Amino acid sequence: MKKLFFAAAFMLAAATTVNAQTKFLRFGVKGGANLGKLDGTGFQDGFKLGYHLGAFAQVNLVKGFGVQGELIFSSSKTETADNFDKIYEGVSTSENRKKISLNYLSIPLLANIDLGTPRFKLQVGPQFGALVSDRKVLGAANEAFKGGEISGVAGLWLQLPIINISARYIIGFNDVKGINSVTNTSNWKNQGIQLGVGVSF
Question: Within 10 A of 34 (CB to CB), how many other CB atoms are there?
């Protein structure tokens, strides 16, 4: 009888653990650091520190695969170059070495692929972002930045019983430059590294 009791208890504990790891629907909040840069002619090279905050929902469709949607507020920094006014038309010298904050409300739609265990996942998918900070940051330009962007996301997700840890790389696909210039037609594209910590429910 004792053996049967212990066997039943063991099976219940194992089932509970598996269910916790493969829960069909999971919600959570997350936040962390952004290392972002604007890849384009006329901007300082190198990543600058920012932050992100948001919420997510995971749906585990089948064993080893699920989807994850997020709503993220993301803030990153960039700075124009010393000769920005020489590169783009209608820009004054006061816009040289200007610090700019780019704030986006982003919606990543990611595939979650288990890497040998439900705890450790590969995440890939698109991200759609709307610029919520001032687009008229350069005095002579009506709108220096376009209002939206489409990006690609790839990263890793570690799902612990309550805490989750994530690291991902984000690369912009479309040109976010709003300035019209016949002298310089280079694209402006966002790039970023996000390191996050969150709580799952």
Answer: 23
CA dihedral 70, 146, 77, 84 (to 10 degrees): 160
Q: 14 in the Ramachandran plot: left (φ > 0), alpha (ψ -120 to 50) or beta?
A: alpha
Q: What is the pLDDT of residues 18-65, one digit of tens each?
A: 344 457 899 999 999 999 999 999 999 999 999 999 999 999 999 999
Q: What is the pTM of this model?
A: 0.82
For 12, 96, 201, the CA distances from 88, given in Å and listed in that order, are 67, 11, 49
Q: Is 64 left (phi over 0), alpha (psi -120 to 50) or beta?
A: left
- Reference 139, options 77, 182, 93; nearest CA is 93
Cβ 186 vs Cβ 40: under 8 Å:
yes
∠ CA 179-38-126, rounded to 5°: 100
Half-sphere exposure of 97 toward its Cβ, with a 13 Å CA cutoff? Answer: 1
Regions of the chain with pLDDT less than 70: 1-22, 139-142, 181-183
| Residues contacting 23, CB < 8 A, separation 6+ | 60
